[in-house]
Amino acid sequence: MSKKYLLVAIYLIFFILVLVSASDTTLPDIDFTNPTPSNGSSQSGDSIYVNVSTNDSSEHYAFVDFDKSLVLWIRGDDTNQSAGTLGAMFYDLSTYGMNGTAIGNATLNSGGRFGSAFQFNVTNGYVNVNTAGLTGASPKNETFSLWIKSDSTANRGIFEDGNSLVDASPQRLMQISTNKIRVLPCNAAYSGSTTTSITPGIWYHVAWVRNGTSNKIYINGTQEVDSAITATCALQGMHIGVGFSGYFNGTIDEMMVFNRTLSSSEILALYNASVNQYYNNFTSLTNGTHTFTGYAIDIAGNKNQTEQRSVIVNTSYVPPAADTIYPIFSDYWDDNATLIGNGIALFNVTVENTNGTVLLQINNTNYTAQNLTSNVYNVSVSLTNGTYSYYWGSWGNGTGHNYNSSGTRSYTVNSCITNLVNTSWSDWINFGICDIYDNQTQIRNLTQYDTNNCGEIANQTIYEYQNISCNYCSFNNVNTTKSDWYDITSCSIFDNKTQTRNWTEYDNNYSTCYAVTGLISDLFINVTWFENQTVSCNYCSYSIVNSSWTDWTNISCLADETMNQTRNKTEYDENYGTCYAITNLLSDLWNSGNNNTYLEFRNILDCGEQLATQTFSGGRGRTIITHECERDADCKTDYSCYSNKCVKLFDVKIVDIVSPIKSREFFNLTYYIRGMAEIKGDVIVTFWIQNERKRLDLGKDTIYLGILEEKTQTVKLFMPNTLEPGIYDFYTEVGYENYSAESYRKIEIIAPSTGMQINELDENETKDAGDIKETSPAGIKVSESIKNLFSNMRKGSLSAVQFVSSNKTYFFAGCGILLLIALISLLSWIFKNRKPKDMTRLTSIMGKKVYAENGNYIGNIKGVYLEDKKPKIYGWLIKLDKNIARKIKQKNVLLRHKHVKSIRRIMIIDEKVAEHLEKLGSGSA
Question: Are the beta carbons of 109 and 117 closer than 8 angstroms?
């Protein structure tokens, strides 16, 4: 390689090293964004939503100091010493100024996670923080945040809070144990260890959040530990880089302590705000003024902050009416396409409701308009050839000075003079079809173009229209073929009858032309032609027919235990009724209308076995047989006349009505039916409820019943919630042809808030009664002993509190409710004369919103109900949205727990359940 190229390479390497080593002095960007309330504002409610926007070319983190909750913030960048020196003082950037002092071999290291950091070895180095008099620290709610990089895998302390160095009984301790992070709060019991193993030489963000009942440990923004704690303690003396396990070996940076519990989104912003922008909703605030400031720190340690905002929270505050005044633009004018090459372009506009500031933006450049007269504003601007986009903008003259802008318009400066020329008109062509009013539209066009080809104005086509007369309808008469002859009279006694046939003359164009609505002329009415003829026929002719044998009929059971039976059939002329019986008919008669009847007799052994058959026939004349009955009135009560015999055709009895049931649901009814004769057909079973004022049909059932057959049937019926409470008769009726039998029970119907309940009356008030019941989900019954009570609690009987623990916002409420339920159960066990409640209501999540999977609003949680046996959550009582409640005529609905898919801030229910509610509302369920 030549010396020239070697020298160039050396210069390039030197230049790259200078660029790499150049320090970053640019502050990160940070601002409050919507919906963060403005400084000095007032708002109703008890919460403030803070949203922070941050930006930097490098990785950075962000947080908000709300109501001076940041009680300690020590960085390696804020010190009175340079890197590597001993005895440095590290300044506390919080409101309280609790500075730290480097002790022993603790030094400043310029290679921190964000700028500089604390460097510790395993001998005697640590940072002592004077926390004496720190009244802002809470003994329950606090958050510790810091970055660590360990140089070994040995067990070491990270920081502690105690009365002395390496305190064996510290109030707070964070340490590395078996290569994982764990904490010791208030010298109570160690938390669980993190799942992440600490690898030497790697930076980790560690956050420890306490809320008085639990410890949560986050590694790099992800929660890995959640353990219970009830102990409380105050700060005594903070030592960074040391703990009960010994001195830390490595680097610690950005040590922060808050006297509140930070949310998971705030922990993510502390870990990496480049990916996780900061936001948090500060809730349950007291009335008064609350202050907050946002901070952002980049990878070089550069720190930037927002202004401090003060917001007044007042639950009774009524905000002023919103400003609805916006500027209104009209009467646009410009001298478009008049300039050639360049010149002064003129623009005018009329603006109403403006505060006086009107801007014209042309190709993203703003020009301030001048007020000419009244509400007219003008802009004059020099433009060269080309096409420009512009619009007007202004602010309103209301309290909010609302901004509004016009639509975008176009302005052209021509590069040359155009010469527009028209082409010749085209021929007229039909535009549409001939309409029902006998006219048709035609169209022609010509094209206008620039012969100079300036390119400023595009060719344009001009269209011209005209209407002409036409004939919408023309006749096209067509005859159908003649139909076949068919009788229009029957064969008369004079042996003749009349026949007819027809054909139709119609206009074949009618369906596409004359049938059009509004057609008032050119109509042609279809004509149908008829033709008749008389033909001969034979009015009367013999048709001798034998009827079928009847069934055997018992006559009597004789003394020798034989049954005497008979049956018969008749020979007759089937034409007699319509032909021979006609008055004045003098011929073609047969037997003067007398039919022949044949009888047959037999004896049956033991009234069941055949013994002998005797047959004989009679001649002309009539045979009269006397039957046991002709109608139901011939039989005694509860018997019917069937095949001229008095029988009890069938019997029915209500067996069971399944309970419990709910309103607007199906329930099962079991009944018994027994056939007492040869029915061999379908019988109809009807069910209804009635009292002296009202009858309500519940449905029908159809079953097949054979010869002397008996069946037990179960049918599904629907019980509506429209009945008034009271005593009703529940009927089951069986019908076949004109015969019926029924059974009924007396029942009581009541309608509690959760649905319909039907109770069976006692035996002296009922007849053939069953029961139908619907009860609310069972409440938590008192255990038979205190031992069973706490055993149930230990096995997770209060699963509702397990639910609220999944969302830390409600965890405290869940624990309190657990203790409340236990106390109620214990008191009920002591005072056995008090009945336990049917339902136990968990109030911690009352009022939470309920949505379907498709986003439709269903209602709000009104209560949570528990079953008795396990116990477990039975379901959620939902106060329905007014629109749904009005449709289904029910304010509340109890949804089963199994239909709940998700619940945090809101509750999501199964889509099928929501669809069922909609069907109930439409009446199709």
Answer: yes
Q: How far apart are CA 478 and CA 231, in angstroms?
A: 105
Instruction: Give residue 789's pLDDT.
Output: 38
Report strand pairing: 172-177 vs 156-161. antiparallel
The closest of 120, 156, 127 to 250, measured between CA atoms, is 120
Alpha carbon distance 218, 52 (integer Å): 22
- Report CA-CA distances (Å) from 301 to 23, 220, 298, 311: 11, 19, 5, 30
Q: Residue 589: which domain range?
A: 544-620
Q: Are residues 523 and 378 in the same domain?
A: no
Taking alpha carbons only, the member of 889, 853, 858, 855 closest to residue 876 is 858
Closest CA to 99 of 88, 114, 111: 88
The answer to whether position 309 is within a domain reads yes
Q: How far apart are CA 745 and CA 760, in angstroms?
A: 9
Strands 695-707 and 739-750: what pairing? unpaired
The mean pLDDT value for 334-348 works out to: 93
> What CATH number did the domain enclosing 302 receive?
2.60.40.10
Mean pLDDT of 753-762: 40
Whether this model's pTM surpasses 0.85:
no
Distance CA 774, CA 667 (A): 10
Q: What is the pLDDT of residues 193-203, one digit of tens each?
A: 999 999 999 99
Q: Which of 259, 277, 299 is the last residue of a domain?
A: 259
Listed residue (98, 130, 232, 240) closest to 171, CA to CA: 232
- 115 and 183 in a single domain? The answer is yes
Q: How many domains does the chain have?
A: 8
DSSP state of 593: G
Residues 148 and 209 both lie in one domain: yes
Tell me how far apart the alpha carbons of residues 533 and 515 are, in angstroms, rounded to a whole number: 35
Q: Is residue 918 part of a domain?
A: yes
Answer whether 86's CB lies under 8 Å from 102's CB.
yes
Whether residue 879 is found in the same domain as residue 895:
yes
Query: What's the CATH number where 91 sits?
Result: 2.60.120.200
Say yes or no: 799 and 892 in one domain: yes
How much helix, strand and coil, in percent to the nearest 5, is found in the chain?
Answer: 10, 45, 45
C-beta separation of 887 from 911 below 8 A:
no
Least confident stretch, 267-271, 417-421, 705-709, 776-780: 776-780
- Do 108 and 245 lie in a common domain? yes
Q: Is residue 33 part of a domain?
A: yes
> Residues 792, 898: one domain?
yes
Q: Which residues pair with 19 in a beta bridge?
A: none
Q: How confident is the model at residue 925 (pLDDT cuts 50, 70, 90)?
A: very low
Domain boundary among 410, 428, 443: 410
- Among 33-37, 402-406, 627-631, 701-705, the least confident range: 627-631
Evaluate whether residue 415 is within a structural domain. no
Give 883-911 pLDDT, tens digit per residue. 787 777 777 877 776 676 665 555 677 66
The answer to whether residues 301 and 370 belong to one domain is no
Secondary structure class of 10 (helix, strand, coil): helix
CB-count burial class (<10 Å; 0-12, 13-18, 19+) for 918: middle
Neighbour tally for 290: CB within 10 Å: 17
> What is the Cα–Cα distance from 712 to 158, expressed in whole angstroms?
78
Percent of the chain with pLDDT over 90: 28
